[in-house]
Write a structure and sequence with these properties.
The structure holds 2 protein chains of 2 kinds. By secondary structure, chain A is α/β, with parallel strands linked by helices. Chain B is an alpha/beta fold. The chains are: A alpha/beta, B alpha/beta.
Chain lengths: ~325, ~400
């Protein structure tokens, strides 16, 4: 297995980390807990990422996503548990880890009054890149991000999508093996979003490991593996197929169905009250519902105008179901 | 598990990971910020100049307990009695006795004493002979208010004693003139222009205001805009960041200092009696201190508005408790202690000493040392506070 060769000069093969590359996870988090005073931000979270993986991390705002990233980057202490990045303890080797990790937040961290070039050069110097290494690296980065034509433009003149590309360029200027992206596409248009994700995939194919938080389900579906954090706890972890097969997502004796009818919105309250209907949400002109199998026949009888067909649970369905599941557990 | 040896990323980076790592890129970036925004730069430089013109004129103050050195060449009961009269007045405070002319001038030049009372050897004899006995009162004119009050008070004391003596000797024959005559002589600022006194102090205040504000805002702006979050993900060290930020604003402050000094010299016509080079060199520790103070503010303030308020809060004590307006020697012990903790106190002594009295390194090295220490401590404190905020 090769390291992220295309990213760097290509001359220097990764050593040390390269031998057990398939065995040793790039990020290994074990029983992480983070407390701020009395508040538990992260509660007993474990996961690991392999080289080149694109891991999607989802959860409502304030569920602990950013805290985990900050802890993994060595910016806040772990209250308990242990985490390593590239085999280095995140607490003891925080300074060393910074050189191997890229970070991009939704706030970009760009200097708007400086040009694209000045931003890139500043971050390159901040990571200690030598002048020769930089010349080569800038060429690669410009080719990768297509920022070339904007090189001497001030950041304040760029659109959101280009700013994001520049933020990514700055975050990976030092050829990091691991990149944390904290809601990288918040508030930009779908086309720019898609092309940014294409960039992530390109880098990931070169061996860069991505840890991405997002609220967008379509982005989540593009991730190889997903984690879902709710109320500080990691309540789901795995590939989309694995999540779909989870018993909580597909309760026994119940089915997901798609209901269609004219003016379906008017029917929603009655559907929700109908015995045996566990969840019902509007999707466009249809309702997605989780219905007990025994209630299917009576439903048909009560609403003859509905056209009903079976449905694969979507990611959102799965997370919503899991969330309800936890909420009920908390209450009971 | 041991950390992986240099991977390709690390192989590209330089080996330097010193305490000040990141200083150069931060300084370069900060210079670019400053030059990129000429309007801000212009106003940052202009505002102190405008204020210099606005506040460059006199503010009168009460004068009490002026430190006074006595050079008594007469050493008689009569001369001691005159010194007593000076000591008894509220205006003078006898701090020391010297027995040579150079010692008397040295005490004045160093700024320790503002008034010198010199009683000539012939004093007692002239009194006995009924001839007018002259005494010399040297006044430090660099503080115009002190100078004129001291001259008035000394003349008053002499007059009072002359009348007393006249009454006692009237039977023996009336003297031809007043028995005691005060010959005032104003040193350093003969015209007792208040501008000469206030402008050097004002320079300290304006410089402090400008620099604290600029550097505090520059770091807090990064916090507000989220670039600080990105910076702390890089290997830049707290000290590298702090010192990297200080250099451009230090250069800016130094430029402003030169500009204001030029205006003081050529527009307000305040001559610089000491060495300009020494003054500029001794300004560096003060710049260091205010830069450090700005950095400390930037670690406390969350928003630019907060930073602005905190920066302004440092100005009032520097105006009222630094000796800029009120004499430190007349303050209560508490306020004297506060004034000793204010950097401007030391710098105002430096700048007044050099500009007005021609004082040199020998007179002001302690001030320079204190400022250097204060500045170093402030920077270390700021870096430490920053480190505490941004690391586990």
């Amino acid at each position: 297995m090769s390291g992220p060769k295309g990213l760097s000069n290509g001359e220097v093969p990764p050593q040390g980390v390269s031998q057990p590359v398939s065995a040793a996870p790039v990020i290994d988090a074990r029983n992480l807990s983070i407390r701020f005073g009395d508040v538990t931000a992260v509660n007993d979270v474990s996961f690991h990422l392999d080289r080149g993986e694109l891991f999607g991390f989802l959860g409502p705002n304030g569920s602990g996503k950013t805290s985990i990233i900050r802890a993994l980057c060595g910016l806040i202490p772990l209250s308990s548990g242990q985490a390593t990045i590239l085999g280095m303890d995140v607490h003891r080797h925080a300074a060393e880890i910074k050189r191997h990790v890229g970070y991009m937040s939704q706030r970009f961290g760009l200097y708007e009054d400086l040009t694209v070039q000045e931003n890139i050069r500043f971050y390159a110097a901040a990571y200690g890149l030598s002048t020769q290494a930089l010349t080569l690296r800038i060429e690669q980065i410009l080719e990768l991000t297509s920022l070339g034509p904007y090189f001497t433009r001030r950041v304040s003149q760029l659109s959101g999508g280009w700013k994001q590309r520049l933020a990514l360029a700055c975050a990976i200027i030092h050829s990091p093996e691991v990149v944390f992206l904290d809601e990288p596409t918040a508030g930009i248009d779908p086309v720019a979003r898609r092309s940014l994700w294409d960039l992530f995939f390109e880098l990931s194919a070169q061996g860069v490991t991505f840890f991405v938080t997002t609220h967008y389900m379509d982005e989540a579906e593009r991730c190889g593996r997903l984690g879902y954090i709710y109320l500080s706890r990691l309540i789901a972890l795995g590939s989309i197929d694995e999540l779909r097969r989870q018993p909580e997502a597909n309760p026994p004796g119940a089915s997901r169905i798609n209901l269609e009818a004219p003016s379906i919105a008017l029917l929603l309250p009655r559907l929700r009250r109908f015995p045996g209907v566990r969840e019902a949400t509007i999707f466009g002109r249809a309702v997605h519902a989780l219905v007990e199998d025994s209630a299917l026949e009576p439903l048909h009888a009560a609403f003859p105008q509905l056209s009903i067909r079976n449905l694969q649970p979507s990611l959102e369905d799965i997370f919503v179901t899991l969330t309800y599941h936890i909420m009920k557990g908390e209450q009971g | 598990m041991t950390p992986g040896e240099p991977s390709n990323a690390a192989a590209q980076t330089r080996a330097s990971r010193g305490t000040f790592f990141g200083l150069r890129p931060v300084a370069r970036k900060e210079f670019t910020h400053i030059l990129r925004d000429p309007a801000t730069l212009f106003f940052a430089l202009l505002i102190p100049i405008v204020e210099l013109f606005l506040f460059g004129y006199a503010i009168d103050t009460n004068v009490r307990q002026v430190p006074t050195v006595v050079f008594d060449e007469s050493r008689t009961q009569q001369s001691r009695s005159l010194v007593q009269a000076f000591a008894a007045s509220d205006t003078f405070h006898i701090t020391r006795y010297v027995d040579s002319e150079p010692a008397m001038y040295a005490a004045m030049r160093s700024g320790r004493d503002r008034v010198a009372l010199r009683i000539p050897p012939s004093y007692a004899r002239n009194l006995q002979l009924g001839v007018t006995a002259s005494v010399l009162v040297l006044v430090d004119g660099s503080d115009s208010a002190v100078a004129s009050a001291a001259v008035d008070a000394a003349t008053g004391i002499a007059m009072e004693r002359s009348i007393g003596l006249a009454a006692a000797t009237s039977l023996a024959g009336a003297p031809s003139g007043p028995a005691i005559e005060v010959r005032p002589s104003v040193l350093y600022n003969p015209a007792t222009r208040s501008a000469n006194f206030f402008i050097p102090g004002l320079i300290a205040i304006l410089l402090q205001m400008m620099i604290i504000l600029l550097i505090a805002l520059s770091l807090v702006r990064e916090r507000e805009r989220g670039t600080l979050e990105q910076l702390i993900m890089t290997p830049i060290t707290p000290l590298g960041l702090m010192v990297g930020k200080m250099i451009p604003y230090g250069v800016l402050g130094f430029g402003e200092l030169c500009l204001i000094l030029a205006i003081m010299r050529f527009i307000f016509q305040v001559p610089i009696h000491g060495s300009l080079l020494v003054l500029l060199l001794m300004s560096l520790p003060f710049l260091l201190t205010v830069l450090g103070a700005g950095l400390i503010i930037s670690t406390r303030a969350r928003t630019q508005a907060e930073a602005f308020q905190l920066a302004m809060a440092t100005i009032l004590p520097s105006v009222f408790l630094s000796g800029y307006i009120f004499q430190i020697s007349t303050m209560s012990a508490l306020f004297r202690a506060v004034s000793a903790a204010i950097p401007a106190t030391y710098y105002i002594q430096i700048i007044r000493g050099i500009v007005l009295r021609g004082a040199g390194i020998a007179d002001l090295w302690i001030n320079t040392l204190v400022l250097t220490l204060m500045g170093t401590i402030a920077i270390l404190l700021a870096a430490f506070a920053f480190f505490r905020q941004h690391s586990p």
